[in-house]
Structure formats: structure tokens, C-alpha cells
Amino acid sequence: xxxxxxxxxxxxxxxxxxxxxxxxxxxxxxxxxxxxxxxxxxxxxxxxxxxxxxxxxxxxxxxxxxxxxxxxxxxxxxxxxxxxxxxxxxxxxxxxxxxxxxxxxxxxxxxxxxxxxxxxxxxxxxxxxxxxxxxxxxxxxxxxxxxxxxxxxxxxxxxxxxxxxxxxxxxxxxxxxxxxxxxxxxxxxxxxxxxxxxxxxxxxxxxxxxxxxxxxxxxxxxxxxxxxxxxxxxxxxxxxxxxxxxxxxxxxxxxxxxxxxxxxxxxxxxxxxxxxxxxxxxxxxxxxxxxxxxxxxxxxxxxxxxxxxxxxxxxxxxxxxxxxxxxxxxxxxxxxxxxxxxxxxxxx
Length: 348
Known about the structure:
The chain is α/β, with parallel strands linked by helices. The protein contains 13 helices and eight strands. The protein has helices at residues 3-8, 26-36, 53-60, 72-82, 102-111, 131-148, 164-169, 179-190, 214-232, 234-263, 269-309, 313-318, 328-334; strands at residues 13-19, 41-46, 63-66, 87-90, 116-122, 160-163, 194-200, 343-346. Strands 3-2-1-4-6-5-7-8 form an eight-stranded mixed β-sheet, sandwiched between helices. Helix 3 (53-60) links the parallel strand 2 (41-46) and strand 3. The model is unreliable at 314-334 and 338-343 (pLDDT under 50).
């Protein structure tokens, strides 16, 4: 057992594996995490699998729970509510993420005093399966950075390590695989300390199939972006809508006004009424954005206060003020040094 692994013994680590029809891979994934993190508790939440996933996970030694509501969001929400741990390692059961990388992710969480470390996927575009998936990954990551901030470069990565504070303050509203996007927005919204660690992304073995649909799931992600924008940045969201209605109003209004100034008549009354209606809607949109922006700020403050009030059991037991990072002296004694890889750290 490595010195870093012995260092992790002080923490209660939970490995969370949401699964749906992953019988061909879940056994080796569970065994991989058992070898990489010998003291961790491994939980497999089976989401109505029909191929024996639960049995394979149980035989491999995992704690198996069934979640009947279909969708990864339902599974993650229940996992974070049910399980009490100091550090949460969340991965997929399809063997595309290497269990041995968990040690580096945890070390980064501890040494960087972060609340979430995301394992960004190296080579994901080469192994996306279809060009639509690769193109969608690029577009949605660019769109995220424009809408919510530059904290993340791979918002769809399912390999994440979370602190207890993050897990217990995360609302988890999404139903499906959009849950990773919601996690990223939650961290950006509260300006939580996060980090990224670039990792290799594996290929699915033969017999394991992706559950993603390029167009249907792409539409769901766009809808999720719009809803999260409405909830977290309402003035921008309703401001864009207000500008669209205002532009429509001006477009219909100008010919009528020009004709009125030239002749003193308004022969196209329905067009004038429609233009005024669009103008009123735009005013309503701007007003709604202003009001909801204040509401959103108040909600963010409440979430932040709840996050701060959530104790870190490991920190409390060791007399630390925040996070999981041991003192510099403890780092040197244990040999636990920052991960010698490319780490992109983001702080609010």
C-alpha cells in the first residue's frame, strides 16, 4: 500500500457507480476500485437494469441499491442523499474511466483544497463513436464557457471527486445525464474552488453500448442550458428575450411611423397594434429579468450559506478550518504531494 493510500485511510471515501445495463463491465470496475482504494466503500446503484448488472456488482463485492426512477440524475440525487462520507468518487460502470486514476483525483482534491475535481477526458473526441458526439462535445463546452464561466473544459465528464460540503449542498434537480452539467453550474454559481485533472479516456469493451442519442440528448442538453440560465442568470436570459421582442416591435413599427410622418395617417392599424404589443412584451421581459435577478442572488446567497454551514467531518476532527487538506508538515511526512500532472485549477 502506497504512502498516499495510507494517508487516505483517515478519510471515509465512498465510490459511487450509477449503472444501467453494464453487466459486461461492472464487475471489473468494482474490482478495480477495490484494488485502487482498499479502504473505500463501493456503492452500485442499479437503475432498472435487465442484464444482471446488480448481481454482477454484488458478486464483485459492491453494496448494491436499486433506484426505480429512470435517469442518471435520479440515481446521483439519491446517492448523495443516502451516503455520508468525507470524499465521494463518482464514476461510470462502463469501464471507460480507469479506477487507478482515483488516487490522483483524491490527492488533487486534498492538496488543492478543492470541493470538486473533474477528470477531463483526454481523447474523448477520438472515441466519441460518432462524429455528432465529438462535435456536440466541443460545441456544448464552448457554449457553457460563454454562458456560465470558464471553470471547466469538460462538463460531461462522469469521473469526479467531490467533497462532503459539495455533495450535501448540491440540490441535484436534473433527472437524466444532464446532472454533470448541473454539477458544473452549481460550482460556478457558488464560486467554489474546483480543479481539473487530464486523464486518459478508455474505449467501451465489446458488448457494452452507449445509451446516448445524438439529436435527442443534444436537445435535452440545450434545454438544460436554457433552464439553468433562467435560474442562475435570469437578467441575461430575459434580457435576450426582451431584445428579441423589442427588435420585432421596432421592425414592424418603423414603416408605420414613417408613413404616419409622411401622410399623417395610420392605414395599417393591425400592424401598429402588433408592434405595440411586442413592445409591451419586451418591457415585461426586462422587468421580469430585473426582479428575478434579485431573487436569484438571494437564492445563491442561501446556497452559499448552506455550503459554508455544512461541516467537513474530516476537517472538524483534525481541527482544520476548511476542506480536506492536511497541513504542510503532514504533507511532507506522508509524502502526499500535489499530483504531478497537468492540473487546471479554478477558484472563485
